[in-house]
Amino acid sequence: MPVIKTHNSSGTLVVTISRPDALNALNEATMNGLRDVIQEAYQNDTYRGIILTGDGEKAFVAGADIKEFTSLTKEQAFELAQKGQSLFKLIEDCPKPVIAAVNGFALGGGCELAMACHMRIATENAKFGQPEVNLGLIPGYGGTQRLAQLVGRGKALELILTGDMISAQEAKAIGLVNHVVGTRAELDELAQKIMDKILTKGPLAVALSIKAVNAGYGFEKNGYQAEAENFAAATVTDDFREGTTAFIEKRKPVFTGK
Ligand code: CO8
């Protein structure tokens, strides 16, 4: 199962993305599994909050599964981006608190997933980035919007245009991460400690706070549609074919701008 759920006595649903051989990359089955779990969390009163994490020490999520989208049509790419955007929006709008516990690489769709959560806690070894440009691509799961909201437009553009990976400490310094801890055990402990504190508050006040904060970042008012359109436009270029082929062949891409 690519999405594992466990439930503890405090009412926290721990959702673990588990595809260790692919650094927990988000393939279709994982995205579908994640949607099912989040929808269930909306409806099931046993679950009072969600901690979202990745299996193992190496990766939270290393992005969308690059091997799955090498031969998309523009229409399919647009639909896939919109589908992912709507799942991440479901997470962002969840009336129960959602904490990302980031244990390693949070890249591309993985960084976008962490940003859709209400807050982010990371281990020292975590690395954040939007490396899509290395593939001749742009972020497609809300990253162009949420990164700018969290760290400001200038820093967001620097990260998106260079594709650079940054450390957990750098991510904290720019406001992408709330807290950084040393080990995986400390990560789980702090995520639960913050969750437990939130769970002592009035659940309605928590839900209404999330709703009110999110209202200032309206899905309709922002550029999600433009992101999906430009993501789709990128997927039918020679550069995208070269970028993804080079990743799979483990070599540097040679881009031509076509
Ligand atoms: N997709 C598929 N497979 C992956 C991915 C990925 N994103 N990341 C890693 N893997 C696989 C590798 O191919 C490798 O598999 P194999 O053993 O079969 O060769 C395995 O995981 C281990 O990875 P590495 O050997 O590369 O491990 P390293 O420690 O050497 O490197 C890195 C780790 C730096 C994280 C490296 O794996 C990497 O650069 N990964 C890709 C990161 C990336 O570019 N992510 C962004 C993807 S694009 C994206 O997320 C767009 C979001 C919107 C999509 C919209 C949907 C259509």
What does this structure look like?
It is a single chain. This protein is an alpha/beta fold and 258 residues long. The chain has a single domain, classed as 2-enoyl-CoA Hydratase, Chain A, domain 1, CATH 3.90.226.10. The chain is built from ten helices and ten strands. It has helices spanning 28-43, 74-92, 109-116, 143-151, 153-162, 168-173, 184-199, 203-215, 224-234, 238-248; strands at 3-7, 12-17, 49-54, 59-61, 98-102, 105-107, 119-123, 127-129, 165-167, 179-181. The chain has a six-stranded mixed β-sheet with strand order 1-2-3-5-7-10, sandwiched between helices. Strand 1 (3-7) and strand 2 (12-17) form a beta hairpin. Helix 1 (28-43) runs parallel beside helix 2 (74-92) and helix 3 packs across helix 4. The longest helix is centred in the N-terminal third of the chain and has 19 residues, at 74-92. The protein is globular, with a radius of gyration of 17 Å. The mean pLDDT is 96. The site of octanoyl-coenzyme A has 25 residues, from helix 2 and strand 6.
